[in-house]
Every structure is written in structure tokens, then in C-alpha cells.
Specification:
The structure holds two protein chains of two kinds. By secondary structure, chain A is mainly beta. Chain A has no helices and eleven strands. In chain A, strand 5 and strand 6 form a beta hairpin. Chain B is mainly beta. Chain B is 0% helix and 50% strand. Chain B has no helices and eleven strands. The chains are: A mainly beta, B mainly beta. The interface between A and B is medium-sized, with 18 and 21 residues.
């Protein structure tokens, strides 16, 4: 069975501080991991995927197979980063398994 | 681009009635659509996967006779909650993927969700 764990329901940081949203996964196959973001009153949207090795809005995430983690990081938080962040694992048939989400709150 | 719409955005119904929720891909052909439900402060749980022209595949524990899914065209999938009860009240979200074209084939594009309240 595949599982995604996001241990923090809420993460509060000050503007300009570094951000790390934790994500751990459990999957027997070769994992494909994603981060999705949901801004207030908006739909879920893809932020980034591990295979692209991209940086989106200053966020990066590295897949660590040894630690089965895919933490989302940003060196300097901005107020507009406040949102709900979901880590997701793609299994067979393009199905996504989501973590429970972490609410990021960036305070001034 | 890659816009998915849902209708209605919210619905209130009486217990025992049926409710239909539509999911449309507006600017691409959706070869596969997914239906999720999300309870307050919880994660999205996949209910079923539907491919155009074939029967939906339901996740374990999801009653296929209660949650009827139809994917009759490449741009429309419907979820009908039959004989709804208060415990069916939830936020229902669809997503769609395409096999190619202008948009990434392995990305799920999400609709805005439908809030169902059963009285």
C-alpha cells in the first residue's frame, strides 16, 4: 500500500524566514512525487514534481529515497506563500495518494 | 489553459434524493477523470477513476451503486450521489488528465470542487 505522511497540520513562519514542509512516503515501487498547493478560495494546482527537478516560485523539493522523503523548501518565505500544501504520490494508473496537507502561514 | 470546471459549486438537498455533479474539461480532451471527496480538515480521498467510454474503477470501500459515475465524452464526467444521506455531505472534487496535446499528459488538473450538503 502507498501512503503519504505530512506530520505538520500547520506551519507558521515569519516573512523572510526559511520554510520546510515535510513529506514522507511509503511505496514499494519507484515513486513519483508531487507537491500541490491550494490558495485561499482557489482550486488545487500543481506546484512541482520531483522528476522535473524544477524550482517554482522559489520552492524546491528533492526526493530522498533513503529517507523516503520529499520535503518542500524555500529559503525566504513571502506573504503570498500562505496556502495549503499537499504532498502526493503517484501510483499505478496515474492515481494520486495525497497527504493530509500542511497549512503554511507566513506572518509579517 | 487546462481548465476543469464543476457544476454546481454547491448544492443542498434533502435526504433520500439524488444529486448529479458535472465535471468538464474546457480546453482539452480528458482521457481520464478522477473523483475525490474531502471531509473538513482532511485530505483528498480518491473515490474512482473513469476513462471515457468505459466503466469507472472504484476504490475499495466506495459503493459503486451509490456513487454512479458516467464518462460519456472526452470532456464530461458526471458523479451522481443516489439516495443521499447526511453522511454523504462532503466536498467532491474532480480532476482530469489528457493523453497529450498542449498540456502535460501525466498531470492531473483539478476542478474547483462541489460542496454537497444533505439535510
Amino acid at each position: 500500500a502507498q501512503r503519504v505522511t505530512q506530520p505538520e497540520k500547520l506551519l507558521s513562519v515569519f516573512k523572510g524566514a526559511p520554510v520546510e514542509l515535510k513529506c514522507n512516503y511509503s511505496y514499494s515501487g519507484s515513486p513519483e512525487l508531487f507537491w500541490y498547493v491550494q490558495y485561499s478560495r482557489q482550486r488545487l494546482q500543481l506546484l512541482l514534481r520531483h522528476i522535473s527537478r524544477e524550482s517554482i516560485k522559489g520552492f524546491t523539493a528533492d526526493l530522498n529515497k533513503g529517507e523516503t522523503s520529499f520535503h518542500l523548501k524555500k529559503p525566504f518565505a513571502q506573504e503570498e506563500d500562505s496556502a495549503m500544501y499537499y504532498c502526493a504520490l503517484k501510483g499505478g494508473g496515474n492515481k494520486l495518494t495525497f497527504g493530509t496537507g500542511t497549512q503554511l502561514k507566513v506572518e509579517l | 489553459g487546462a481548465v476543469v470546471s464543476q457544476h454546481p459549486s454547491w448544492v443542498i438537498c434533502k435526504s433520500g434524493t439524488s444529486v448529479k455533479i458535472e465535471c468538464r474539461s474546457l480546453d482539452f480532451q480528458a482521457t481520464t477523470m478522477f473523483w475525490y471527496r474531502q471531509f473538513p480538515k482532511q485530505s483528498l480521498m480518491l473515490m474512482a477513476t473513469s476513462n471515457e467510454g468505459s466503466k469507472a474503477t472504484y476504490e475499495q470501500g466506495v459503493e459503486k451503486d451509490k456513487f454512479l459515475i458516467n464518462h460519456a465524452s472526452l470532456t464530461l464526467s458526471t458523479l451522481t450521489v443516489t439516495s443521499a444521506h447526511p453522511e454523504d455531505s462532503s466536498f467532491y472534487i474532480c480532476s482530469a488528465t489528457t493523453s497529450g496535446g498542449a498540456f502535460r499528459p501525466d498531470t492531473q488538473y483539478f476542478g474547483p470542487g462541489t460542496r454537497l450538503t444533505v439535510l
